[in-house]
Amino acid sequence: MLVVVSPAKNLDFESEIPVSTFTQPSMLEDTERLMKVCRTLSPADLSSLMKISDKLATLNANRFAEFSTPFTKDNARQAMYAFNGDVYTGLDAYTLDDKTVDYAQDHLRILSGLYGLLRPLDLMQAYRLEMGTKLANSEGKDLYAFWGERITEVLNDALSAQGDNVLINLASNEYFKAVKKKQLDGMVITPHFKDYKNGQYKIISFFAKKARGLMARYIMENRVTDVEGLKAFDVDGYQYSEEQSSSTELVFLRNQEA
Question: Among the four residues 3, 51, 170, 205, which has the most C-beta atoms within 10 Å?
Fold first, then answer.
């Protein structure tokens, strides 16, 4: 099965990376086209467009200005070790063994507003450009228009290469919206993670994001190949709920109060 996750706003370009191998992003030509648009934006433009502080806007304007190819280990970093958010806390890529990293390279993909789709070992440079950003470009009014069906086409290639037609959606709604489900050559399975609080089970963003990373790691470490194997996920207190699940929406519950 193929797993997709979202990127993170926070980045880590300082920690020592435990692997030396790397690959190049497959959609880099598209990235360079998009970067030409990003470079026309001033810090004030970015602040308004992204709803971020002046300090962050200046940082990202500088990142866009400094973007350069070709990517090397001196000016870029493998994607799985560059993102530093809740999902990546759960994934904990730095502690994956070499064979699991190799497996993830074939079975894990990171959706990105700037890079389209990244494999774990694809090099990337620091950026911030969320998929939901309404950045006008040659293809339309936002990034969904820019990427069109290209992300889906690359996912279809990955599904074909890795041997089955099951895609596990561990991405946020904002990012998975960039995937054209009707054009996808596979069945989409979306896990949901709910915690018990104040008398009911509900999705709590922080915990759900971390759980997505935990499940991505579980799939990679255990080489899960079917939906039944996915239902056995029991990390960090979560348990599969057959009652709340459907054939394509798998619900996992955790009772924090217990």
Answer: 170
Of 100, 102, 68, 95, the C-alpha closest to 81 is 95
Whole-structure pTM value: 0.96
pLDDT for the residue numbered 258:
42
Per DSSP, 164 falls in state: S
Mean pLDDT for the stretch of residues 33-44:
96
Total number of domains constituting the chain: 1
Nearest one of 241, 20, 227, 219 to 107, comparing CA atoms: 219
Residue 8 has pLDDT above 80, yes or no: yes
Residue 78 gets the label, from left (phi > 0), alpha (psi -120 to 50) or beta, of beta
Instruction: Give CA–CA dist 142/163, Å, rounded.
Output: 33
Asked if 254 and 202 touch (Cβ cutoff 8 Å), the reply is no
- Dump the DSSP string for 200-234: EEE--HHHHHHHHHHHHHHHHHHT--SHHHHTT--
Range of the domain at 57: 2-254
Helix orientation angle between 98-107 and 150-162, rounded to the nearest 10 degrees: 130
Contact between residue 23 and residue 104 where contact means Cβ atoms under 8 Å apart: no
Q: Convert the pLDDT of each residue in 130-170 to its tens digit.
A: 999 999 999 999 999 999 999 999 999 999 998 889 999 99
The tokens for 176 are 């998975």
Q: Residues 81, 22: contact at Cβ < 8 Å?
A: no
Please name the helix (run of DSSP H) or strand (run of DSSP E) that holds residue 188, with its range, or none: strand 187-197
Tokens representing 178 are 């960039």
Q: Which helix (H) or strand (E) holds 62?
A: helix 54-66
